[in-house]
Amino acid sequence: MARTVSARRYAQAIYDIALERNDVEKWLDDLSVLASSTSDETFVRFADSPQVASDRKTSVVKEAFGETVSELAVNLTCLLASRGAVSSLPDITDAFQEFVDSEKGVERAEIVSAVPLSKSQVESITKDLSSLVGKEISVTTRTDGSIIGGFVARVGDRLIDGSVKTRLDDMKRELIRGA
């Protein structure tokens, strides 16, 4: 059974190394490449498999990424492969990005809408969220038809729910209370 990998701990160690070597942007690029490799299910199954010998995993990782990412990034991937934890690369990348954003004073936000938002809508919501929290905002968006309409935004530990679903649920509760 694979040991649980703490993405945040790995990201913190990588971030410390990146700061020490003044290599934060290079690490962002390398981690992005490594995280995207996890979309290949065959590679992840191979790298996380306890039946595959560590030296075999290491040679495949070095061959696959040796020319693409830094030696330290290759070593990270080999370490994760030896622990059956290559599948945690996207989480490590995300946690690393959080450290970078925090250092820059940027707050991360997610906007969920029922339908894809236009660029101007995203910009408008981002501007409002930025003024609400008093920081620059880095936004990711996704769609979820179950909210029916409107949007739900999460900034740090704050939740702004302007969804039609929540409004309908609130109306339902009020009607039940009033009846």
Structure description:
The mean pLDDT is 93. The longest helix is centred in the middle third of the chain and has 16 residues, at 89-104. A hairpin with a 2-residue loop joins strand 3 and strand 4. The chain has helices at 7-20, 24-37, 41-48, 54-65, 71-82, 89-104, 119-133, 164-178; strands at residues 106-113, 136-143, 151-155, 158-161. Helix 1 (7-20) runs antiparallel to helix 2, helix 1 (7-20) packs across helix 6 and helix 2 packs antiparallel against helix 6. The chain contains 8 helices and 4 strands; from the N terminus they run H-H-H-H-H-H-E-H-E-E-E-H. It is elongated, with a radius of gyration of 21 Å. With 179 residues, it is of the alpha+beta class. It folds into 2 domains: 7-100, Peroxidase, domain 1, CATH 1.10.520.20; 105-178. The protein has a 4-stranded mixed β-sheet with strand order 2-1-3-4. Helix content is 59%, strand content 14%.
CATH topology of the largest domain: Peroxidase, domain 1
- The helix content is 55-70%
Task: Give me the side-by-side strand order of the main sheet.
Answer: 2-1-3-4
Q: What is the radius of gyration? A: 21 Å
Number of β-strand runs: 4
- Quick one: CATH superfamily of the largest domain? N-terminal domain of the delta subunit of the F1F0-ATP synthase
Poorly predicted runs of 5 or more residues: none
Question: What's the CATH architecture name of the largest domain?
Answer: Orthogonal Bundle
Please trace the helix and strand order, writing H or E for each element.
HHHHHHEHEEEH
Number of domains: 2
CATH C-level category of the largest domain: Mainly Alpha
